[in-house]
Every structure is written in C-alpha cells, then in structure tokens.
Amino acid sequence: MGTIDIHTHYVPSAWPDLSAQVGPGLWPTLRVDSEREAMIMLGDAEFRQVGADCWDAEVRLADMDADGVDLQVVSPTPLFFSYDKSGDEAVKVARIFNDLALEVCAPAPHRLLPFAQVPLQDPDAACAEADRCMANGHLGVEIGNHVGDRDLDHEGIVTFLQHCAERGIPVFVHPWDMPTSPRLERWMARWLTGMPAETHLSIISMILGGVFDRVPDSLRIAFAHGGGSFAFWLGRLENAWHRRPDVIATSALPPSAYTNRFSVDSVVFEPTALRLLVDTLGAERVMVGSDYPYPLGERPVGSIIERSDFLSDDEKTAIRRGNALRFLALDSLPASATFHSLEGLRLS
Prior knowledge:
Helix content: 25-40%
Number of domains: 1
Largest sheet: 8 strands, parallel
CATH class: Alpha Beta
Strand order of the largest sheet: 1-5-6-7-8-9-10-11
CATH superfamily: Metal-dependent hydrolases
C-alpha cells in the first residue's frame, strides 16, 4: 500500500485577469515562458518560477508513481489567499482559484484531492465558500496561519474553525506572509527561519488563546512543516505556563495537554527531527507531507519514514497513510481508485 501526501500545492496554467475580474490592485499574473515553464509575477517583479508539475496532472501522476504515492492533497499556493484585500475581493479570487483547482485535479479525481482557499478575513464568506467547495468536490480547506495581525485565536477565525468542526471539514494550516527585514532577505531566511516561527506562533495562539478549549474535539486541523519549531520548544512553553501564570496561563490546561488536538506533516527532512515529533505528539499525529512540487520539499516523498528505523512497521503505516485517511475522513478506498491496490483497507 502506497503513501498519502497531505501537503502539495498547485498553480493553474492560466487564470483570468484579476484586475478586470476583481478590481484594480497588485495581483499575481503568470508569465508563460514555455509549455513546461512559467513565472508567477507580482506587477513587474518575479515572484516564483514554476513548472508543469504545478498544473499538469500527467506530470504529477508520473512523479507520484515514481515515489509510491497513491493520493495527493492538492492545496492552493498561499500567494493567492488575498487576505490583504477586501472580503468581497477575496471571495471572487477564492472562487476563481477554487474552480481552477477542480480542473487541475479533474484528470485523476481519485488520486488528486483538492483543498480550497477561503476569504478568511470575512468569516461568514469563508464559511459560505467552504460549504460551496465541499459541495463541488473539494475535500477540505487550506488556510494561512494569520490574517494581518489577527492570529488563529481571533474571534472571526475561531468562528470559521467552529464551522469546520461542525461540518467535518479538515483544515490544513500553512505559514505565509512572513515578516521581512534586511536580515531576513539573505539566504532565504524568511523561509528557513520565518516559516517555522510563524507555524510555532500559530499553534501557541490556538493553545494560549483558548481555541482548543472552545472548538469541539471534532475539529481536524493539521499544520505544515512539522508544526514549525513547536515540538522543540514545547518544554519552554510548558515551563512559562507554570512559572508565569499571570501572563501565560490563559488556557484551561497546560500546553502539553493539547498535543492530541492537532496533527503535523512529516516534511522535516531528518529522522532525528521526526523522532522528536513522534515523541512529542505521538505517531498517530504525524502524516506524510512533501511540499511538492516546490524545491524546498521532500523527494522521494516519504523517504524520511523509511530512514527512521526507530518507527515500528505499524507506526510507518500510520504515518504513511492511516493517519491521513482519518484526517480526510476517508473510511475506505476501492482498489480501482488508486495506482496501488488498496483492496480491503479499512480504518480501525
């Protein structure tokens, strides 16, 4: 039985002129350089070079087969979130890209599972778009880890998370819009240090901001990049909660009591880091994620699992697929649905 990759991204091969469709502003465009290469542009500035593996299902499927991946969760590239725009504008952008995501995944609907983006700055609109997308074939939503200065414990975002819990919509949290400074513009430091810190902060906000105390246990939420630096610094957070309760102890329980409320992906690259995740959260809270097709991702997908000899066979199976099946609420999959045979597979 193959792997389920819960962290991949797409970029459509084309999209409408957002200035005409949505309104004036600095919107991403795509400069097509060839059938296989393109450049995402922000105004006149180059943002990211992308290839056909972002939009071509055949290319994705060939890479999946090479790596033994049965299913990919295909999520938006965070640049398209548009959280800095008005709610009305972000709704229009979300609808455009969510519909394009279905087109990207349409050639292999049993292997490419689309996640939607939502206008998170407008909770009512975000709930409505999530419902629309789930009805149209998306399996969940990807959200950014903050909206401006509003973190995941902001009242409006909590309302959205409660809605997802009630509707059974899985939520994948991805860091984005990292702070910048001259010190962080060298060596991709915004990605190498800022992304882990952003994710760490967001998990802390859900704990100390009381989100896990208010949102039902039924919320299925996962954080990208192994949860950032959270696992390494949980001891520091726990110590602060006990020693400075006047400032820190805003949650009903100590931070370590909430490690069974969320999951993380496995894209941490080294077995020693994966062992820390498993020791901190439990093997049942880790799922394979690759960040495909971007160059800071893992290839072959899930290779860290095989290199982690401290994992039992059952733990490897859980991380490779069982935990993801539970996160996605896929109780079973027919053998004909995927490249590898899944006949007889059932969740316990």
